[in-house]
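Recap slide: Ribosomal RNA large subunit methyltransferase M, sequence and predicted structure.
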Amino acid sequence: MKNVLVYCRQGFEKDCAAELSEVASSKGFYGYAKVVPDAGYIVYNFDQPDAGETLIQQLSFNRLIFARQIIAVNDVIELEQGGRVESLLEAARELPLAEEIWIETADTNEAKSLSGLIKKLEKPLRDGWKKSGVLRNKAVGVRHHVFMLDGEAAYLGVSYAVCRSEFPMGIRRLRFPAAGPSRSTLKLEEAFLQFVPEQTRESDLTEGMTAVDLGAAPGGWTYQFVKKGIHVIAIDNGPMQKELMSTGLVQHEKADGFKYEPPYTVDWLVCDMVERPIKVAELMANWLASGWTRRAIFNLKLPMKKRYQEVSLCLQMIEAMLRKAGVGYQYQIKHLYHDREEVTVCIMVR
């Protein structure tokens, strides 16, 4: 397959295209993006016959900022009423064998109107895939995606376990906890699940650790640590939720988050302060370079235009500061589902 289809948040299509263009060219693939404003996805077209498949298998999903899902596709498939399954199945025979098939749409209000049609198509599609031998248990890590544009057209593509989301439409849906101080708590919960590997989650988020939460009030991010038995130094001039304070795990200090310095090295630093992204990035890099924390998760609030370029500048500055300090690290960055006009960054010192 020669092209790449990327799902993204509605309104971030240009940023998604700018990022993929830079990433693809760095791997030696050149093409152009088809961008429709507010579509919730982009298609990147390449000249090389297998460019789409080859490229996505070379990428790291948690380093693709604006991609909720990424699949390799060919051209749009026209669907005839009464013959949709047959049209898709004919195209599927040209794809690599897969172990499963997903039927999806963009995350837009317009696409939600297709939910009824998708329910009608799901069983016939899966039955057709199985009977034709396109689905095989041995095709581990390969998934087919039917991406419905409307009732008359769809993309049919493939994803690989090495670089993709494991959630339909690339959306990890979380339930707001009854005791949560604010809805922002879901941002840190999603970040932990996205960035901290399951095999190390217990050791990376251990009871008895210490975290610093800059701009903590009313305690949405602090809450995620407290429920794991982690002590939190909450830095904010505003009030914290009373229930959190009653746990005995929160030390509230009324101070400026940009001036506070910890008395000792902490296990985690988190920050969701509303400030210029470059200023937050510099603060986070300073904490890591100074050895004040081993791990950091923070949000970068984005401007309305050239968001990818702004994030790139922030990452470049962080890299320069940590390299100068001789700090080895690994970073991940994502525009998470529970983020809005912001992206979430995770950096762990090696």
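The chain has a mean pLDDT of 96.
The chain has two domains: 3-170, 185-349.
(End of recap.)
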